């Protein structure tokens, strides 16, 4: 892949920092940068056919409705859902998870039930289930990790029993980059009739998603992790589960008929999309999916894997720097510590050189406790990164180590 050609499609790289340094963006696990095609799609909607979708008969409304429907179709095809009805637009991954926790799980959860999560989960896929259990008296079971940072699958299987109503697990750890064996998890959960939710926020550019082959019950992701805008996400759910759920919220757009006595709700997916949607965000997400499809997920993954392997090889020989976790299968995410230097000091030092990394606990407090650290420096690669940028990162880390020594 011609990375320089691809990089020119991202306007943010057409500038330097106050010190005149080019931006080396290594925080793609937090959010990806936006290509011109996505920015133009959003601007094109607002400047060319801004209108609400669904019922307008004038041409901007018609154009907006068509673009909105096309984006939903793009999402369905992107994850291979059986129907567009199974693709619900939300404000993001966290919103989607909370909707499942509050509207699917909570109404029937009792003190004799249990929910399983893992020790590596982002707070967005940990706290909602924890709070549901606290409110109902249900038990929260937590899958431990091995010393290498993989899920302990034997321990997971020992946690399964007839009390387990739901298993919520990330596809890829946003902190360690660990890629989990989703098929093994889902097969094991099925033996006990447990529903499985997959947090796919970090998976989108690493491998094609096929929810039918995977046979998960719910899958959630955010647009901004896949070169799309913030404020838009997707809740995939099997049609029968979405039909059985009460509406995620109430208001306009999600009804067929309202009388003083009762309300008849609209069919899927409208039933779960009350109010005016983030139309520009949906259209932007559709453009982002088109961008990814054009590049090819396999090509994106091959590029970021090569960068990750190269970075790990160079870090292995970097005295004073410790990489946390050695999972059997890793995505393009690396967490490290530099001696006793606080991660925020490392990030600030590198920022002056134009290198953007993430520092902190990465919304994974339970994992930080397991690792015995307050926080880490996280490096995560994207399609616009290069081996030369890895070399500059290594040089920067050497300077950090020597300066604070």
Summarize, please.
This protein has 2 domains: 3-30 and 297-404, Aspartate Aminotransferase, domain 1; 39-294, 3-Layer(aba) Sandwich (Aspartate Aminotransferase, domain 2).
**Main pleated sheet:** 7 strands, mixed
> What is the CATH H-level superfamily of the largest domain?
Type I PLP-dependent aspartate aminotransferase-like (Major domain)
**Relative strand content:** 15-25%
Number of strands: 15
What is the average per-residue confidence, as pLDDT, rounded to a whole number? Answer: 97
Class of secondary structure makeup: alpha/beta
How far apart the termini lie comes to 40 Å
> Helices and strands, in N-to-C order?
HEHHEHEHEHEHEHEEHEEHHEEHEEHEH
- Count of helix runs: 14
Q: Which fold name is given in CATH as the topology of the largest domain?
A: Aspartate Aminotransferase, domain 2
Q: Per the principal axes of the C-alpha atoms, what is the gross shape?
A: globular
Which sequence of strands runs across the widest sheet? 2-8-7-6-5-3-4
Q: What's the CATH C level of the largest domain?
A: Alpha Beta
**How many discrete domains?**
2
Q: pLDDT under 50 segments (min length 5)?
A: none
Question: Mind telling me the C-alpha Rg?
Answer: 22 Å
Specify the CATH architecture of the largest domain: 3-Layer(aba) Sandwich
